[in-house]
Amino acid sequence: MAVPKRKTSKSRRDSRRASNFKVAEVQLGECPQCHSLVTSHTVCKTCGYYDGKLVIDMEQKEKKKA
Question: For residue 33, which of 21, 47, 20 has the smallest C-alpha distance?
Answer without folding.
Answer: 47
